[in-house]
Amino acid sequence: MLRDTSELKGLAIRATDGELGTVKEFYFDDSSWAIRYLTVETGGWLSGKEVLISPYSILGTDWDKREVDVALTKKQVENSPSVDTHLPVSRQHEVAYLGYYGYPYYWDGPYLWGPGYFPSGLAFPTIASLENRTGKRQKESNDTHLRSTNEVAGYHIEAADGDIGHVQGFILDEEAWAIRYVVISTTNWWPGKKVLVSPAWMKKVSWGESKLYTGLTREAIKGAPEYIESRKISREFENDLHLHYGQPPYWLHEAKHSSSFSASSV
User: Fold this and answer.
1) Could you say which of 23, 36, 159, 215 would form a disulfide bridge with 164 (CB–CB 3.0 to 4.6 Å)?
2) Using CA atoms in the order 63, 5, 238, 197, what is the torsion angle rounded to 10 degrees?
3) Are 98 and 104 spatial neighbours (Cβ–Cβ below 8 Å)?
4) What span, in angstroms and rounded, lies between the C-alpha atoms of 109 and 125?
């Protein structure tokens, strides 16, 4: 199901032995736009320290109670490698974090989450395998590829023929933990309308200019189906959106490759 990331902010994160804290923001991979970590404010039990929680650990979400269950204990989180969430998260930090929890490196495979398209249900590597790969990764570049959703919110959007507005928010696929669409507010060009544009339709992202560039025209965006926050995004709406822009649906591509992956794994 697709959800606006604003719906997830403030959700309680529940460990197997108690509450860890609440969701504050997200770090996404700037190449795939997958959500790699949730930033969680721990409150009083950990002196207000902010910690990172990977989607690998998520067991499920109770939207009525606004709770996310994770396969972690409070002691695990307390003893996890320290990461300053106010600074960029480097690859070195990620190697230490993923190695501590025994999670696979998402950058080691061909799919969104390394060996698969979804973080749930993946087989985690052995300790020996992790130690071997950690040694290799420490010799590689420490450049970060993670961006904060709070940082990118407000970035300007440039169409093929001019400015069209700014980033209002993000639409998340809660199974793949990927940003499927950027919510664009066109208020300073076309008043009162919000539209969705896929990161896959972006030509370039200029982090220095705080700007996203798309090859779509202003006219095409003006005529796109309107995004109304109070309505759930249905597959019918997505079909209309992709047809309008003449873009192939991402779910067909992923279904094809997922079935190929499943067959090759048998």
Assistant:
1) 159
2) 180
3) yes
4) 13
Residues in the chain: 266
- Is residue 29 helix, strand or coil? strand
CB proximity list for 61: less than 8 A, separation 6 or greater: 11, 67, 68, 69, 174
For tokens 């779509």, name the residue.
216
CATH code at 153-253: 3.90.50.10
| Angle between helices 91-101 and 127-137 in degrees, nearest 10 | 170
Instruction: Note the pLDDT tens digit of each residue in 125-139.
Output: 544 444 555 455 444
User: What is the reported pTM?
Assistant: 0.88
- C-beta separation of 54 from 37 below 8 A: yes
Q: Say if strands 211-214 and 156-159 run parallel, antiparallel, or are unpaired.
A: parallel
Q: Where do the structural domains in the chain lie, given as residue ranges? A: 2-147, 153-253
Task: Say how far apart CA 74 and CA 14 lie, in whole Å.
Answer: 9
Alpha helices, DSSP H, located in 59-148: 74-78, 91-101, 127-137
